[in-house]
Structures are given as structure tokens and as C-alpha cells.
Inverse folding.
């Protein structure tokens, strides 16, 4: 048996909504995945902290469920991002041992990034809902890339995918 544990945080007064979301959205999605064996949501009602646990019959099934989340980002977020002025790249990574997901987008200018926010916020909220967390609990940070060093082969791969 393989287990995925995902730490979540919700404002304590929104915890009931997060529990309902887990029951109606997350369970619906994971139950349909091959190799699903069960799920548990542990919560601390005073702090809003929680741990979502899913059980899988094999590492292949666990990996397949992760791939479904990656595919959703690729098939829903990426097409939208590609239509936005100044969008350059999206990089998504999942720490398989913790379930923590990082998604990074790259923009030509700060103003392009700021203009994208109203268009991508709904997709971000939808992914949070699917993951069983509140959109408010997602941490969005903005950084300037002060130094960038990329190999020619990586740039070529990126350019071929954009075509």
C-alpha cells in the first residue's frame, strides 16, 4: 500500500467549507482513479490545519494519480496562459515525498504578470478546490529573476514546445 499525505491550511472559520469540498470534489476525483484504496481528512478545528491522506494499491497507482493533476494543469492552465500577453513559461513540480506542489510562471514584464492575475485567478481557485484546499490558503509570491542561466538545449526544448 502507498500513501500520499498533503498538508493543507484553511482559516478556522472556513474549515467546514474545506471539509465539504473534500467530500464532494476530492473524493469524487480520487475514487475514480485506478488503484484507489481510500482517503482520510484529518483536521484541527482550532488552527485550521489539516492533512489529506489517500491510499493507493501500488506506486504505479500513486504516480498515476499525481500525473492526473499534472495533466490537468497542462491541459487547462497552460492553454489559457499561452493566450496572455507576455507569458513565457510555466514550470510545475511535485515533491513526491510530501505532495507539495510548486507552479512557477515566467512573464516578460511585471505589468504583464499583474494583468494576468484576473484571468488566471479562477483557474487557480478551481485547482485548489480539486485539491481539497481553499483558494485563500494558496501562497502566491512574486519574485524578479535577478540571474538566469539556461543551457542551449533547454532553450531549444522550450522554443520547440512553444511552436
Amino acid at each position: 500500500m502507498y500513501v500520499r499525505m498533503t498538508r493543507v491550511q484553511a482559516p478556522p472559520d472556513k474549515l467546514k467549507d474545506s471539509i465539504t469540498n473534500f467530500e464532494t470534489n476530492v473524493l469524487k476525483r480520487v475514487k475514480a482513479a485506478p488503484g484507489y484504496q481510500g482517503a482520510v481528512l484529518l483536521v484541527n478545528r482550532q488552527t485550521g490545519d489539516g492533512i489529506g491522506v489517500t491510499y493507493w494499491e501500488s506506486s504505479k497507482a500513486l504516480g498515476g494519480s499525481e500525473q492526473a493533476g499534472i495533466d490537468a494543469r497542462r491541459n487547462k492552465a497552460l492553454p489559457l496562459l499561452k493566450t496572455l500577453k507576455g507569458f513565457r513559461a510555466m514550470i510545475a513540480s511535485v515533491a513526491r515525498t510530501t505532495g507539495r506542489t510548486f507552479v512557477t510562471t515566467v512573464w516578460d514584464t511585471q505589468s504583464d504578470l499583474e494583468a494576468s492575475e484576473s484571468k488566471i485567478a479562477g483557474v487557480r481557485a478551481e485547482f485548489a478546490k480539486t485539491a481539497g484546499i481553499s483558494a485563500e490558503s494558496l501562497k502566491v509570491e512574486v519574485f524578479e529573476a535577478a540571474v538566469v542561466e539556461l543551457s542551449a538545449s533547454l532553450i531549444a526544448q522550450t522554443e520547440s514546445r512553444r511552436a
